[in-house]
Write a structure and sequence with these properties.
Layout lengths: L16 H11 L10 E5 L4 E5 L3 H22 L8 E5 L2 H8 L6 E4 L4 E5 L10 H18 L6 H11 L14 H8 L16 H35 L4 H9 L3 H15 L2 H7 L1 H37 L3
Parallel strand pairs: 2-3, 3-5
Antiparallel strand pairs: 1-2, 4-5
Length: about 325
């Protein structure tokens, strides 16, 4: 059963300045290199704007969009009745100047139903055009459904990652244990701190995405997708995140976080952490052992030379 999305031209959420700049730079395309080669194609469901060398990519977007939309509607249980504009940027430098963060691979501007994708990153594991588009479309669908309601950032990002098979719109990096380390140390970022925005510092930004994904996955595990929809329905009516969680799940946001933390601690212990890194640990100890052996060899070699020099000086003239 689909929930009918309530489309509102005015959003209560304040759009970050960099996103506003993004719209200015892109809609007035002369700011972008090779502007003369900019083209667009459209259907009833979507419009794609692109630089001429990306025409084949744009055609792929047009061809795959209906299936992505249908899959997302089914998973989110929302009807996507708006036609987004998707802008493909060829040069990562141009994209990063606007996005303001080298980790970002795509952005969604909900007020204008706009998705901007750094196409140069779409072949960087684990990103692909399909999952990235699904992730950003999730953001637009959620905001369209909420309307003037309050959509906390952690819920927005968590649901989008869940809907797009765990893919974020930033490069998480090689430290996939960032949440495990936070669990072992007990140094989480409270969800209340992630309601309006995520921290700018790289480590904390990555942890924010991982926490959001894990927290929403926990909610779905315990309460099903229906639990998330109940929270969204209360947010749509104007409720704050903590009130929406309490009404939707019959548990306070604080208590829900505590249960989630306990869930993480049961799954993550020092033993499981070391067990999952046994090969790296063995390699590290092996490297230390070899280094120690080499140092001992150098010390013995130096001592042997010193003994030879002493014998030469003490020998018969």
């Amino acid at each position: 059963m689909f929930h009918r999305a309530h489309h509102s031209p005015e959003m209560k959420r304040i759009v970050p300045a960099m996103y506003t700049l993004l719209v200015i730079l892109i809609l007035f395309i002369p700011q972008i290199p090779d502007a003369a080669g900019t083209e667009s194609i459209r259907s009833d469901d979507v419009m794609v704007r692109f630089e001429k060398p990306l025409k084949d990519v744009a055609i792929t977007v047009m061809r795959t969009y209906p299936a992505i939309k249908h899959e997302l509607e089914k998973k989110l249980r929302l009807e996507i009745d708006f036609a987004p504009t998707i802008i493909l940027i060829r040069d990562t430098g141009s994209f990063q100047k606007v996005a303001g963060n080298r980790l970002v691979v795509a952005v969604a501007l909900s007020k204008d139903n706009l998705i901007v994708i750094d196409n140069s990153k779409m072949k960087t594991h684990p990103f692909s055009l399909g999952v990235t588009l699904k992730h950003e479309l999730s953001h637009l669908a959620l905001h369209d459904y909420i309307g003037k309601g309050n959509l906390p950032r952690w819920l927005n990002e968590g649901v989008a990652q869940w809907a797009s098979d765990g893919i974020a719109d930033i490069i998480i990096g090689e430290d996939r244990d960032i949440l495990k380390k936070a669990t072992l140390s007990g140094k989480y970022i409270p969800m209340s701190s992630l309601a309006s925005e995520f921290p700018a510092e790289t480590h904390l930004l990555r942890l924010s995405y991982e926490e959001s994904k894990s927290f929403v996955a926990y909610i779905i595990k315990e309460y099903g997708v229906e639990g998330v929809m109940r929270i969204l329905d209360h947010l749509r009516k104007g409720g704050q995140a903590d009130v929406a969680v309490t009404k939707g799940l019959s548990v306070s946001l604080y208590e829900l976080e505590e249960r989630w933390h306990s869930h993480l601690k049961r799954r993550t212990t020092w033993f499981t952490y070391f067990s999952s890194h046994i090969y790296e640990i063995i390699f590290a100890f092996g490297a230390l052992f070899l280094t120690y052996g080499f140092i001992q060899f150098l010390i013995r070699k130096r001592a042997y030379k010193d003994e030879e020099n002493m014998e030469d000086r003490d020998g018969p003239e």
